[in-house]
Specification:
The N terminus is likely disordered. This protein has two domains: 118 residues, Rossmann fold (3-Layer(aba) Sandwich); 91 residues, Winged helix-like DNA-binding domain superfamily/Winged helix DNA-binding domain (Arc Repressor Mutant, subunit A, Orthogonal Bundle). It is built from eight helices and eleven strands. The chain is an alpha/beta fold. The radius of gyration is 19 Å and the shape is elongated. The strands form three sheets. It has a five-stranded parallel beta sheet with strand order 2-1-3-4-5, with helices on both faces. Strands 6-7-8-9 form a four-stranded antiparallel beta sheet, with helices on one face.
């Protein structure tokens, strides 16, 4: 008798002290192609992670004992780069900034629509995925970009990138010569419209092009989006 095939569906750890939310998300994500494990506290999550690897974590912030922020900081301090989607009743801009600064990849406030959480979760999984065929370093003009490190060098100098610029550049180097629409480049950022994408593109051009007004590498495809041409 042969063994059952390995389930390669993304495995998500749901960490929330609210049993109803754990049950809701476990059922909803399972119905949409995910494997799930639930934990009621940061301590329980840490114990589970010692024995299992996860593709993403949905993490509440306010919990008895250690907070979700504490757990995220501990993970990042231990070089655990699994994507984190914070789920919290704390809805102020400062709360979002604190969550993202502590190592979160996205932040969703309660109450929430399960579909929005699903879309955001899929988005951070796409952003974190590095295809096996991705080169360790990509060159265009005077620039070298490492997708794994998210590091851009122009000559012998490191060029500072924002998180959005780094994410966009990773998408471009994964698909050199292909046209990426503004929708693809939004990457699930609901507050970010098409105009904001154009702003990020213009900032990237100032960092990689010799003449940003006449770009050679990061070019506009009229009516369709943008494409990155490599050397």
């Amino acid at each position: 008798m042969s063994d059952a095939p390995e389930d390669l569906s993304p495995h998500v750890l749901i960490v929330d002290d609210d049993r109803r939310i754990r049950q809701l998300l476990s059922a909803y994500l399972a119905a949409n192609g995910f494997r799930t494990t639930a934990a009621a506290s940061a301590e329980a999550a840490s114990a589970v992670m010692r024995g299992l690897a996860f593709d993403a974590i949905v993490l509440d912030i306010m919990m008895p004992g250690r907070s979700g922020l504490d757990l995220a900081a501990e993970m990042r301090g231990g070089n655990n780069a699994v994507p984190i989607l914070f789920l919290s009743a704390l809805a102020e801009t400062e709360d979002r900034i604190t969550g993202l600064s502590s190592g979160g990849d996205d932040y969703l406030t309660k109450p929430f629509e399960p579909l929005e959480l699903l879309l955001r979760l899929r988005s951070i999984l796409r952003r974190s995925a590095t295809p096996a065929s991705s080169p360790s370093e990509v060159r265009f003009g005077a620039c070298n970009f490492s997708p794994a490190r998210g590091e851009l060098r122009r000559g012998d100098k490191i060029v500072r990138l924002t998180t959005r610029e780094r994410d966009m550049l990773r998408l471009f180097v994964q698909r050199p010569g292909q046209t990426l629409s503004r929708g693809m480049l939004q990457q699930g950022e609901r507050e970010e419209g098409a105009r904001a994408v154009d702003v990020h593109i213009n900032r990237l051009r100032r960092k990689i092009e010799d003449d940003p007004a006449n770009p050679v590498y990061l070019q506009t495809v009229r009516g369709a989006g943008y494409t990155l041409h490599l050397d």
